[in-house]
Every structure is written in structure tokens, then in C-alpha cells.
């Protein structure tokens, strides 16, 4: 989501890839020094280091003057939806993704999957209702909150779940059709040497 935000904000960048093995990201000293939890995303803006995807997106939005409204109350809605996406929605989408990736190798995750999918409805149903009458999650303008929510929804894009929420599904596609997102995806596919569309 960081590269997507950089493209949307039209900030020049140089991506650095890392190997992620079974035990997590590489234990390299330079990486641990900038990311104490040994996780991505991390940015280095001329020596200013920042971790946490939500904080990074807000920083990029504020720095570029894009994707964050100037009005205080409109901006508070962006914070609200970023926090809801990461703290409520992703709390459910991530275990579903992990259950699907691990399959029979993790029977505990399988046993919980349908209960978690049901619980996710508590958030998706009101979001579905909202997106019937507005194109983006805070209103009519695309913001950093849409980048976060789209990336969180992406975790369940290959499941049956979104079919029950057609407006959420259309919203997800609308955001992923943006030029900046498509550019990042295509570049990643080229970098990994995989077929066009394989990362969709
Ligand atoms: N709260 C953090 C979570 C970061 C996170 O979970 N990053 C994952 C990739 S999306 C990661 O680095 N996984 C590798 C690992 O934990 O070893 C954020 O939003 O930036």
C-alpha cells in the first residue's frame, strides 16, 4: 500500500525489496535498525524513518497535500476509517486469509474461519449500505483511508465473502482500477517475472 500511496501522491521513490522466509523478514542489521518489529512497511525520507502503514500513509498524504482533506472534520473521517479498517475489519480479514493460505495444515484456523467470516458482516453490512450512495469510504473523494480499506479487503478478494456485498465489491474494484494501483501491480509483476495479471 505504500507504493500505491507514493504513486497517488506523486512522490518520487526508490523501492527496496526484502526476502521473507518462513520465519519472517530477514534479520539483517540495517533492517532491524529501521524497523524494530522487523516488518514492512518502512520509509526513509532523507534520513527520516517511519514505520506503521497508517502513519506512513498519513505522512505521505500530509507531505504531498494530497489524499487528505484540509477541513478538520473531513480529516477526522479519514482517521476514523483508517483506524476502523486496521483495527476492526483487518482483525477479521487477516485470519481468514491465513486460514485459506494454510488450509488443512492449520485445522484450528479452519475451525474458526466461518465464525470470523460471520463476525466480519457486522462491519461489511454497514459499509455496504454507505457505499450504495457514495463512491469512497469517507465521501466523494478518494483518500488514504480508501488505500487502507482496499488493501484490507484485498486480503479476502479470492473468497466467497464479498459476493454478499456487491457495493463493497464494486468499491474494491473501483479503487484497484486506479492508474496508480495498476502501475504498482504491473511493476511488481515485472520485477517478480510473473505473468501480467498474476498478482491481481
Ligand atoms: N501494523 C503494521 C503491520 C505490518 C505487517 O504485518 N507487515 C507484514 C507484511 S504486510 C510483515 O512485515 N510481515 C513479515 C513479518 O512479520 O515477518 C503495519 O500496518 O505496518
Give a brief rundown of this model.
By secondary structure, this protein is mainly α. It has two domains: 2-66, Glutaredoxin (3-Layer(aba) Sandwich), CATH 3.40.30; 72-180, Glutathione S-transferase Yfyf (Class Pi), Chain A, domain 2, CATH 1.20.1050.10.
Could you tell me the CATH topology label of the largest domain.
Glutathione S-transferase Yfyf (Class Pi), Chain A, domain 2
How does the helix and strand content classify structurally? mainly alpha
* Low-pLDDT ranges: none
CATH architecture designation of the largest domain: Up-down Bundle
What's the mean pLDDT score? 94
What's the SSE pattern? HEEHEEHHHHHH
Bound molecules: glutathione
In angstroms, what is the radius of gyration?
17 Å
What does this entry look like structurally?
This protein is mainly alpha-helical. The chain folds into two domains: 2-66, Glutaredoxin (3-Layer(aba) Sandwich), CATH 3.40.30.10; 72-180, Up-down Bundle (Glutathione S-transferase Yfyf (Class Pi), Chain A, domain 2). The protein has eight helices and four strands. A hairpin with a 2-residue loop joins strand 3 and strand 4. Helix 6 (144-154) crosses helix 7. It is globular and about 45 Å long. Residues 20, 24-25, 38-41, 52-53 line the site of glutathione (GSH).
Q: What keyword list fits this structure?
A:
single chain, 200 residues, mainly alpha, Glutaredoxin, Glutathione S-transferase Yfyf (Class Pi), Chain A, domain 2, two-stranded antiparallel sheet, two-stranded antiparallel ribbon, binds glutathione
Amino acid at each position: 500500500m505504500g507504493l500505491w500511496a507514493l504513486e497517488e501522491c506523486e512522490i518520487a521513490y526508490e523501492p527496496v525489496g526484502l526476502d521473507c522466509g518462513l520465519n519472517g523478514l530477514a534479520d539483517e542489521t540495517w533492517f532491524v535498525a529501521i524497523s524494530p518489529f522487523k516488518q514492512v512497511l518502512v520509509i526513509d525520507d532523507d534520513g527520516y524513518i517511519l514505520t506503521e502503514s497508517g502513519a506512513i500513509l498519513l505522512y505521505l498524504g500530509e507531505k504531498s497535500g494530497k489524499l487528505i482533506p484540509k477541513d478538520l472534520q473531513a480529516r477526522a473521517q479519514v482517521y476514523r476509517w483508517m483506524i476502523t479498517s486496521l483495527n476492526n475489519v483487518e482483525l477479521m480479514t487477516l485470519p481468514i486469509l491465513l486460514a485459506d493460505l494454510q488450509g488443512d495444515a492449520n485445522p484450528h484456523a479452519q475451525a474458526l474461519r466461518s465464525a470470523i467470516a460471520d463476525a466480519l458482516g457486522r462491519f461489511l453490512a454497514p459499509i455496504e449500505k454507505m457505499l450504495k450512495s457514495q463512491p469512497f469510504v469517507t465521501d466523494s473523494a478518494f483518500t488514504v483511508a480508501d488505500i487502507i480499506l482496499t488493501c484490507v479487503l484485498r486480503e479476502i478478494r479470492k473468497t466467497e465473502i464479498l459476493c454478499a456485498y456487491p457495493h463493497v465489491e464494486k468499491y474494491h474494484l473501483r479503487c484497484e482500477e486506479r492508474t496508480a494501483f495498476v502501475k504498482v501491480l504491473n511493476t511488481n509483476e515485472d520485477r517478480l517475472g510473473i505473468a501480467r495479471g498474476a498478482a491481481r
